[in-house]
Amino acid sequence: MSRTIPPSLPQYTGLRRGRHTLRLLGPVVQLGFLGLGFAVFLDKSQSLLSDAQFTWGERTVMGAVALVALGGSAMAGWVVGVMIRILADTFEAMADAAESARRTTELIEGHVVPALLRIASALEQSPLGRDRIEPARQRPARP
Length: 143
Fold this sequence. Notes:
Layout: H1 13-49, H2 56-125, H3 127-133
Helix pairs in contact: 1-2, 2-3
């Protein structure tokens, strides 16, 4: 009487495909942030390489700003990449939770409900079962 449950479910492939797509998109976004930081770094460091007469302190400040721009964008790319990976894992967890809820429902419908129906019909057919189902009510004593 038990039904077989298929191991793969086609209705949750969209979530699983979204997870795969996000996993592939994470490194691309990280490289994009790194490229943006490198562009800002080159923009800020261009004046360091020019023939302009800057003092040592001005060159140090410009170099620090350029390095902070590069490091900050690398750090932002890393954070965004981690967040994308977490979102991808959340999609996978959602698909697993939906699949397990569906399978649990099928198992309950396939095993528990028929067993309860058999118990109920057995109790209805036995003469002792009627007494158990419908007990005589006792009235409270009047004072």
